[in-house]
Amino acid sequence: MSRVGRPRNQTARRQALVSAAGQAITERGLEGLRIKDIADAAGVSQGSVLYYYPELDDLVLEVHRGAVESFLASRQRAYDEAPAGEPAARLRALVDSGLPGSAEDSEHGLLYQLHRRAGRSPGHAELMTSLFAREVGLYATALEVGAATGAFTLAASAQDLAHGLVALEDGYGLHIVSHNAAVRPERARELVLAHARAVTGCPSL
Length: 205
Description:
Helix content: over 70%
InterPro entries: BetI_C, Homeodomain-like_sf, HTH-type_TetR-like_transc_reg, HTH_TetR, Tet_transcr_reg_TetR-rel_C_sf
Shape: elongated
Number of helices: 9
Strand content: under 5%
Keywords: DNA-binding, Repressor, Transcription, Transcription regulation
Domain HTH tetR-type: 11-71
Organism: Streptomyces solicavernae
DNA-binding region: 34-53
Structural class: mainly alpha
Largest sheet: none
Number of strands: 0
Order of helices and strands: HHHHHHHHH
């Protein structure tokens, strides 16, 4: 197990513990998470973990917050790096960034584990809600731009279609990281893009 270096200031120490906790959750699973696992990953004592995060749930919430921001940033980069004058390319980039690359995809796996806390934690529920809304916003922008340039002929409002696309990728993504052999990443991508073609009237997707 790799160890996170010991930073000197408190902000960096907290961030190191958040990173170590994310690593521990990925390796052991959320339900089996122990203070010892986080301390080992961070290269500190268990007392140091408890000094900064007396409540383990507070640390897990910070892991969730960081995972959401990191995931959204990667999706925004994928969108921004696709050719600006090609709405279909930008929409494809969003689809690619929203699906796990494999059943062992650590980023998606971590998010799906953390989302399970939403049913019993307002903080986790808020993060899950925020992630969904911001992903919808990304898709809605891509769809609106495509419609404005004449590349897309939308079958419904951009907002409604964006909701459907996010829900589709979330559903397929859950099956992928759950090792459902019937849902392969490549096939999931094909199906989401087929839906996107149907609702945008864009054959080049």
